[in-house]
Amino acid sequence: xxxxxxxxxxxxxxxxxxxxxxxxxxxxxxxxxxxxxxxxxxxxxxxxxxxxxxxxxxxxxxxxxxxxxxxxxxxxxxxxxxxxxxxxxxxxxxxxxxxxxxxxxxxxxxxxxxxxxxxxxxxxxxxxxxxxxxxxxxxxxxxxxxxxxxxxxxxxxxxxxxxxxxxxxxxxxxxxxxxxxxxxxxxxxxxxxxxxxxxxxxxxxxxxxxxxxxxxxxxxxxxxxxxxxxxxxxx
Length: 235
Fold this sequence. Notes:
Blueprint: E1 2-7, E2 10-11, E3 24-25, E4 34-39, E5 48-54, E6 58-59, E7 66-73, E8 96-105, H1 122-133, E9 138-144, E10 150-154, E11 156-157, E12 160-161, E13 172-179, E14 194-196, E15 205-207, E16 213-217, E17 230-234
Parallel strand pairs: 6-15
Antiparallel strand pairs: 1-4, 2-3, 5-7, 7-10, 8-9, 8-13, 11-12, 13-14, 13-15, 16-17
């Protein structure tokens, strides 16, 4: 962005009666005495982020994991923008796409945070999470146009809502959300990648298991001072 700064001199004509002084530019509308040009670099980039909350946290077989994703603006985990700064306001008319990955595991360790390493790319981080918990069972995506927007996202698999299968009852689930700079329509406005890390307690869910317990007396009759046994079956 640039603009010109123009300088003029002004003369006041003498009036013998002293009634009125009219100003005119220069002498005979002369050209300005000095013209200066200034150029400024405009920093367009900002760092979009996402804060997410799983709701509901307890899922029954047949339910679809749902996440509420809220956009925000903040600093990078590491690094800065091209001019050494990151704006803390959302650049108008900029769409940002966030992508979510839903992981499950019967290991309670999936509820522990998996920190992103310094300068680790989105794909490098996801590859590390995949080694821990396997490939995500479902994904999701949403688009933001400003900070402070909250979008509700349903987990998808093969183009339809993902539903918790009965054989995953008792498992734990967690979301990972990412924003890829180079996947945006206007990547020059985005400072860098962002990762909402795995294991965040607000991202955790439990696949509820319904247990049926039945019991049957092992011996129909007992004698005095005899032992009573019961057979318990969990189904």
